[in-house]
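As the work plan foresaw, the team has encoded backbone shapes as discrete tokens. One protein thus recorded appears below exactly as we store it.

:::
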Amino acid sequence: MSVNITNAQRAEVLTQALPYIQKYYGKTVVIKYGGNAMINEDLKQQVMEDIVLLSLIGVKVVLVHGGGPEITETLKKIGKESVFVDGLRVTDKETAEVVQMVLAGKINKSLVNLLEVKGGKAMGISGMDGHLIEAEIKDKRLGFVGNITKVNVEPIFDLLKHDYIPVVSTVGCDMQGNVYNINADTAAACIAGAMNAERLISMTDIAGILKDRDDPSSLIPCIDIEEAEELKKDGTISGGMIPKVECCIDAIHKGVKKVIIMDGRVPHALLIETLTDEGAGTMVTGDRNEHR
């Protein structure tokens, strides 16, 4: 659907974005992208456009991605059933190889290609490259699901220095050469913390943290980590949102200024969050006095 706006209105929109462009210029923003937010191809195109735009106006964007649905689909094609324990995929040696193939191969390179097509300058890298993500077994019941022991973000800084958009797939490794399946939210939090990022933006398939999970209009626009802990205790934050919020809190403790949980299915949500007063989703901060 086309929208008729005048050149003056276009200029006004750009002028209103100026303070935000100045605010984020030269700052690092880590974007976690994956799961159901990646399924719609039209939305994926828009997300890549947003990332390229942010990069071109001077934001140092790092894209960290998962790809659970595609891993499940690939395993299904080879006749292997996906088994989950506490929301995490049980990963034997064969599954770890599939995770590596899908994340570091197919998905990573397709995202790099999309960014390049949109006019960006992107480079794909996995957590195995330069031992970016070092890990150990998290729980023997889960097999090669990794608990991150160390992140080495020098390769990401090197890419940013040469104006690339780093696209990071969440596959880890250890000194013995084992491959680990790493939760994308956890990896993004660790990477953002190690980079002292201005923002970590987690793109999900819900509006953010809701007072009533069945009512999107009950969105909580901003909370601090103490309030987040209280909402976990009273059950407002429950189910699959618990690990996401825990990753937000972890990122804040590691040095990230602010973390955003937002709906990746909303068109141009990244630009709404970074370049407008309104923002998108729920902002998690370390300071009770912080606000949008």
The mean pLDDT is 89. The chain is about 40% helix and 20% strand.
